[in-house]
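Researcher: Let's try something more involved. This one mixes different molecule types, so please make sure each is placed in the same coordinate frame as the others.
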Amino acid sequence: MKSPDRFFLPVCSTACTLYLTLTLLGIIPATVKAQDDYPSGPIEMIVASSPGSGGDIVGRLIAKHMAEDWGHEVVVVNKQGASGIIGSEYVARSKPDGYTIFLTSGGPITINPAIYKTLPYDAIEDFAPVSTVARVNFVLTVHPSFPATTLDGFLTELNSNPGKYTYASIGAGSPHHLWTEMFIYMTKVDIVHVPYKGTVPGLTGLLGNHVDLFFVGIPPSLPHIRAGKLRALGVATQERLSSLPDVPTIIEAGVPGYEVFSFFGVIVPAKTPEAIVNKLNAKIIEIINLPEVNEALLARGYEPGTSTPAEFAELIERLINNWKTVVPEAGIEQR
Amino acid sequence: MNELFGNLLMGFDVAAAPIHFLYCFAGVLLGTLVGVLPGLGAVTTIAMLLPITFKLPPTGALIMLAGVYYGAQYGGSTTAILVRLPGEAASVVTTLDGYRMAQQGRAGVALGTAALASFCAGTVGIVVVGLFAVPLAEFGLRFGPAEYFSLTILGLICVTVLGSGGLAKSLAMVALGLLFSTVGTDIRSGTTRFTFGAPELFDGFSFVAMVTGLFAFSEILLSLERRVGHEVVKSKIKRLLPNLAELRQSLGPVIRATGLGSAIGILPGGGPVIASFGSYAIEKKIAKDPSRFGKGAIEGVAGPEAGNNAAVQTSFIPLLTLGLPSNPTMALMAAGMTIHGIVPGPQVMTLHPELFWGMIASMWIGNLMLLVLNLPLIGLWVQVLRVPYRLLYPSILLICAVGVYSVNNSVFDVGVAAAFGLFGYVLTKLGCEPAPFILAFILGIIMEDNFGRALTIAHGDLSIFVTRPISLALLSLAAVLVSLVLLGSIRHRLTSSAAQASGGGKP
Amino acid sequence: MRNPDVYAGLLFIGFGAAALVLGRSYPIGTLARMGPGFFPTVLSVALMSLGFLTLLRPLWQRGDKLAFALRPFVALGAVLVFGVTVPHLGLVPATILLVGTSHLADSSSRLRETVVLAAGLTLLAVGITRGLGLPVPLFLP
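Model: All components are placed in one shared frame. Result:
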């Protein structure tokens, strides 16, 4: 019978000795990094959604320029899952040394606190905001065969057929769901919620006329609107958008105060030194203002926009409070 | 027709440009390698390649990414046959007979059949894409929740046919798979089910972890157990390629499966998987001697492989014509298009015809490259089986562990894989089969989702499933299949008891 | 009594019962608004019924007897060791530990071979992860 000790002990002790020696000799770098020469090594950018998603593309765009400018790798790591909880928790627990940054959307840090009873992180205490990056505007879309071509006609149609029409969302508790519930709250229409497992399935459902309307982000829906496969009835912004100049805002069409959006922004673990936060902020602003980045975002339907850390923090807090009121009012149960 | 030729010529012109040829080759090579490694499927690889495709010109970038995608399907079948590890969901069915063939020393034949079947089906699939892309896409849009639900019912019946342990056990495996598919967040209410508070389970079990554990790990446990006490004599490896008789046997399955796969591929989500076990079920049902299935029937490899590759080709249709990706890989390719300023959507075909037709042509070139690459490699792969098992199994364990871990950098997933390894082992010891379980798992997710959605849209009216024509057709087909299965089961019961009564069977 | 069908049946019944118990708080809802408990409940009941049918099967069909060995399970242990040590020790130590542990799962393993295998597989693991750009740390303090 072979005893396990005969194998483990020699190999393990050799490996450990080797490792210690190499570290002491400085061949494997020690892991402590100073802040004045930030960055002095590779940076990890966490994206809490899957590769190819909106956030992923935006993140990779920024990472590419950041890496070029700073001369260090900026690696995009996808930690998708659980509505962004997995990625958020990872960042919250990471070292606040500026080498882990989080490209997040609005969901994990402004919506999750309202729909989850408990979270393994605190959206305000565990993070330090750096800057917003882009805004995602929403548009109300219907299938071309819908019996209304203006928002007025749309509301009339809905009001004369309570409970008949259905709306798509990308899941219970998703921004789309919540924004539509807010619309319902403000207009008092009676429409039925049909959750889909993502934007593409939702759009497919609308394109096939299986569902009647969808408050959807501009980036995924723009090509279909432009091709005439979907009709845009109104945009949920303060002013008309350059990408859809003929589409009225929902506010001007008769629902005052209905302005909804989602955002992408960069945040870092709380307690990251202010100097590093400011450096990141400056770099991000610089990148977003590059013509090629600006145009890439605009072409895709995003609205580029940066902020100071303080402005971002204020936005986050405002949205969290907004959702904490809207969610119970809309009758959405906490998980 | 002339238009088609003109377009194809343009496409081949684009695809045969040396640089595109090179990208295609790089893509399929990488895809094959990656398909062989568990967990590191096409999605992860393409995600990793996205930054590189920033720098490549758009057509070239997409050609490469596409190559990775269908190359991975080839690689996935290879490991399914050699070590019972399906590299992709669509290769699960290949493990049933493919692995058995390998155990019988016919690994070369299995690998060769898989490659040839895939190539033939892929060629037809590509022609379908070229000819019928737009009408097929429009047809696909008519599939609403009710149709998807009925399709999954039909699929579940097919899955039940796969099993050979007796009807009750097969059905139980299906029910168990469906039950496991409910673990996670319920899309309609947002409630988390059976997750014990672990965020890693909020989106359900990691499919890669499940499959790796259920098939590869459990097989290692079983093999090690067989060896306890005595060295297992390895079957001598016979021929390396299928002979004429075997090719003839495969012809029918390939033709049928190609038709099935081409049609199903356009449906978003799960096309290749459904095509693979749909073909298996069909072949098993119409075979003269269905008991050969599960024991190394070549039709069980030829059909599914053809079906899944045909579906893989047609699964490009929604992306190329409507701008809607049918699965995560397509979503990445859509991202790739976006990065290059080509907004995926209905206008790609008209605004960028060289991209559309260039891709189609290069898909065929890619399939050809894969055939040419893989056939000679069979000799090499078969050598893997001659490695002494005591060296082979730690290697499999390691590659699988690395693969599963790296999908989400998750320790939890590794634990899930180990747990399912144990589960698969127990199931096999008890005479149940993991294949129906995992296939039902895949279908269960689609089924519940669409059942609920269909009913919500219909305001609770169950008749929606039979008033919509496509749904009605699918359900009727399912009913026919059920009666065939029951009739078969009854007849089997009658003949075996008749045989016993006449003294034919042993007491 | 060593008939596997009996155990299979019990397994099914067990899973069905467990699902019913664990899911007792999920509302079932109505057909129009299905609750999270709808499918799991239906499936649990179906599973338990099929479990009973399976239990009864040995009455008309004899199966093979059950037997198993314990040693192969060490292979699963090796996987777990890997999973647990990668985030704390890094890829290289985890690989070595996996190979070392799995060595014990088969009686015909030879120590010298295992050491060489460990080295080779470590190189392979590093090659795969670095080659595909996977962010798995090699060594961790």
